[in-house]
Design goal:
Blueprint: H1 7-27, H2 32-39, H3 43-50, H4 58-68, H5 72-78, H6 86-93, H7 103-116, E1 122-126, H8 134-143, E2 147-151, H9 157-161, H10 165-174, E3 178-183, H11 189-198, H12 204-218, E4 224-229, H13 233-237, E5 239-244, E6 247-252, E7 263-268, H14 275-288, E8 290-292
Parallel strand pairs: 2-3, 3-4
Antiparallel strand pairs: 1-7, 2-5, 4-8, 5-6, 6-7
Helix pairs in contact: 2-3, 4-5
């Protein structure tokens, strides 16, 4: 089962689940329609599961285990879904002997407890991004060993508030950290509309161009990629996500507030499919819909 929300890992996990599901169905001599009737879903949905297009929901996994007459834990494992660890079982032993509980009921109870832990990934909430301390920003950047993903729409504050930030990026890239920077298009329609909402003297396009000017000075560096939002720009402008390995700061742009005045969440990844993974998936969605940007000799921040 994947431990990262990596698109390739997830794709492989779903494909493996689909191959297993089809093999078990064919072993029993059932058609897709036969299995669909037993699961109370459409044949089209069964076909989609077998092609690895969708993750099997928990309720359908229970029906598959019953239809195949297999233990629910084994079924969930083969479908690439969460299964309880030894520590999960030990936790419930404080209240009841797991051996006395039906396998299906045990998994359902442990799954319920697992899902309740989702909120624990929200480590801290800040009323405004400006309330995030310099110490936290410094720690997140310094501790990152794998990936920094700056998904703000303007990102300019990294250069105006973090001393020698370009040197920091250069050093991190030299240390093997993958750095991705996603910005809005300073000339895009979404940017123009957002400027009309904010009505700020330092416009959205100007703030983007401040970042682009600094990136142009930095020049092309292996390990640093920059893109501008394109097809998914509308989804980008309303939310900034800054990822540092398994931690992230998520800034929700409410109404006409600028980024520094917006509600911000500090997330720490603790499980598959939790808030961190969902926001990380959103970042990948934005990145896939963006276009590469290459530095030029001069970026006009007055536009």
């Amino acid at each position: 089962m994947a431990t990262e929300d990596d698109p390739d890992d997830r794709k492989q996990r779903l494909q493996d689940a689909g191959v297993w599901l089809r093999s078990e169905r064919e072993t029993r001599g059932w058609t897709g329609s036969d299995l669909a009737r037993r699961l109370n879903v459409s044949q089209v949905r069964v076909s989609a599961y077998e092609r690895g297009q969708y993750e099997v929901p928990n309720t359908v996994a229970e029906s598959i285990a019953a239809a195949f007459e297999l233990p629910l834990i084994e079924t969930r494992r083969r479908l690439g879904l969460w299964v309880p660890t030894d520590s999960d079982v030990l936790e419930i032993q404080r209240f009841v002997d797991p051996a006395q509980i039906d396998d299906g009921d045990l998994v359902k109870e442990l799954l319920r407890r697992y899902q309740r832990r989702t909120a624990h990934e929200i480590y801290q909430i800040f009323p405004h991004r400006a309330d995030v301390s310099d110490e936290l920003w410094d720690r997140l950047i310094a501790d990152t060993t794998t990936e920094i993903f700056l998904g703000g729409y303007t990102n300019y504050f990294f250069w105006t508030e973090r001393p020698r930030f370009s040197d920091t990026l250069r050093a991190k890239a030299a240390a093997g950290v993958r750095i991705r920077i996603l910005l809005g298009d300073p000339e895009g329609e979404v940017t123009r509309r957002r400027e009309g909402v904010e009505k700020a003297s330092l416009t959205v396009s100007t703030r983007i161009n401040i970042a682009l000017e600094e990136l142009a000075k930095l020049g092309p560096i292996p390990g640093i990629e920059v893109r501008l939002s394109a097809t998914n720009a509308e989804a980008h402008v309303s939310r900034s996500i800054f990822r540092f390995d398994h931690e992230a700061l998520v800034c929700e742009h409410i109404a006409d507030r600028l980024g520094h005045g917006s509600l911000t969440f500090h997330l720490r990844r603790t499980q598959d499919g939790g808030p961190f993974d969902q926001y990380a998936h959103h970042l990948e969605h934005l990145w896939d819909g963006a276009r590469p940007w290459l530095p030029t000799r001069h970026t006009d921040i007055t536009r």
